[in-house]
Amino acid sequence: AARVTEAVSVSAERPSFVGTVQAAASLKYNTINLLPTNRDLLSYVTLSPGVHSTGPDGNISIQGAMSFENLFLINGAVVQDNVRSEPMTLFIEDALQEVTTATSGISAEYGRFSGGVVTAVTKSGGNIFNGSYRTSFANDHWRTVSPFGEPKTDKIIPTYEFTVGGPIVRDRLWFFGAGRSVKETTAQQTAVTQVPYLREFSEQRYEINTTVGLGAGRRLKVDYLGLNQAGKNSATASIGDDAMDLRSLISRKDPMSLVTVNYAGAVSRNVALEAQYSARRWTIKNAGGTNPDRIEGTPVFDQSTGFSFWAPGFCGICDEKRSNENIFVKGTSFLSTRNGSHDVRFGYDTFNDILDGDNRQSASDYWLYASAAIQDGTTNYPVVDEGTFIVHWPLLESSKGTNFRTHALYANDTWAINSHLTANLGVRYDLNRGKNSSGLLISDGKVFSPRLGLTWDPKGEGRTIFTASFGRYVSALANTIANESSGAGLPAILVYQYFGAPINVDPNLPLVSTGDVLKQAFAWYDANVETEAPVQATVPGVETQIRGSLKSPHSDEIAFGVSQQLGRRGSVRVDFVNRRFRDFYSERNDTSTGKVSDEFGQEFDLTLVENTNLLKRQYNGLTVQAGYRPTSRIDIGAAYTLSELKG
């Protein structure tokens, strides 16, 4: 008779941080969803070792780098803002599948950073229909107010979130969709006059992606992420901290989108090809005043309180566009030789950072700086005397849009020499072709970045593994710094002191309305502007210049690590990282830079924006990450960072 046998196979997923040159933490959605934390992108990142919330406004710094020198990717596409390099919320939390934060020993495949690389992947459809629905609630009334008793509105605010995915044609065509919608109302009041009003904010996010199986190991994926934000009765973050009347409130809109088209397929048995195009678009609409009339559209700034009224600051009829485009082509080759096996990755990557908009300070290009303001109930009356200034912000040159483009070539070979030793040999070549908003080339620098690593498994059993690596990481050009020498899109500042008849200086006399005050002030201005010299004149692009080519800052990293399996259920990894930062941005003003003059005959000491290594910045960090799974239902993870940043 035949014998009946039974075999039981027990396997465990190896943690992502074990046994690799790259130190990284990967967290899946299912883990974050069960933890008592937010589900946004930064919640994944801050649970990783080597990550510090020490940047401005709590932004992320990774391994000692500036908070604007990290790289955030969703499905391989860059999702950072052009100004502060913060990751945009172009995702639905329940649609995230996995987020990996790489902090050291990073492959030459990645560039344009000197801190870390955060790669998020969203879900895709499969052969089984599945989905989720979530509703969460908030209420303005649930917040705590100060002893002054700011107004609150008692209204439940639901947030709706869903995901759905499945086959269109089984084994060939799949879809995935997700959405998130919230509309909230909060009670606010104007500054000084304390007029109550309701501020409304709505946000809709959505994602739709389609994956097409093209046969023979080839696939095409198209992904669209959209975000629409709209605010009603928002105070402009202009010269004043807040608005003193309802006329100064705005209704801003922020439509955003991210399109990604990705192709991956096998060229031969040992060679695979991947190509991707992505474009992120963000348009800022209605972010200021919309009436260009000099009387109706000129804000009044109360110098005594620091607040403004009558009209919004900035310009709501001048849309600002912040976008980027990225194209990469990547090849992967698997080779087996007498001297070991090779996993070779090589490719070309080009990225363009585009910022296009004119920074007008009001719809009329004027502000009235009143000496003070008198309140009669909820009405403001400007006090105008010799302490008053009329400020003109003329735009001398419109922006042509920045084009800070980077071209890169890279090759990276993961060479498994034998069962004990693996080498990582990589190099990246980055070339800047950066044009500022005037269309002038201000950066054409190039740099080679070696990435070298070694893993050693003394017993060849995968239990104890030592790692060592060296890498140079080169940042992208910072848009705001690289564009600092351009006058295009920036207004000049012409300040005129008012010497006309005093208005509203005696509160016991009948008060003149703001509209009539502006008529009188501009009548005096028109009669005297040709003969009165401005008390202050600033022309952008004159006293600050970039000469030569501006380089991208970089960091040089040396890292050592050891990882250890803890039986069949646990692992621990310890890494030491040393980073030294170079080619800092600097502004130099000394006797060698010379002097420049503007059209008003004013002479300035020239300030040069350039790179320097006179500054020092060094980071030393010791990180520990561990994972243990005592049962099939319990996962325990821990991360610890001990670091020092000095310079």
Low-confidence residue ranges: 1-13
Percent strand equals over 45%
**Range of helix content:** under 10%
Report the sheet with the most strands, covering strand number, pairing sense and barrel closure.
18 strands, antiparallel
Mean pLDDT: 92
Q: What is the structural class?
A: mainly beta
Tertiary shape: globular
Q: Give the number of helices.
A: 4
For the terminal residues, how far apart are their CA atoms? 79 Å
Counted beta strands: 40
Rg (C-alpha, Å): 29 Å
Q: What would your notes on this structure say?
A:
With 647 residues, the protein is mainly beta. The protein is built from 4 helices and 40 strands. The strands form 8 sheets. The chain has an 18-stranded antiparallel beta sheet that branches. Strands 18-17-21-24-30-31 form a 6-stranded mixed beta sheet, with helices on one face. A 5-stranded mixed beta sheet has the order 1-6-7-4-5. Strand 4 and strand 5 form a beta hairpin. The radius of gyration is 29 Å and the shape is globular. The termini are far apart. The N terminus is likely disordered.
Keywords:
5% helix; disordered N terminus; 18-stranded antiparallel sheet; 647 residues; single chain; mainly beta; 4 helices; globular; 6-stranded mixed sheet
Q: What's a quick, concise take on this entry?
A:
The protein is mainly beta and about 650 residues long. The longest helix has 15 residues, at about 515-530. The N and C termini lie far apart (about 80 Å).
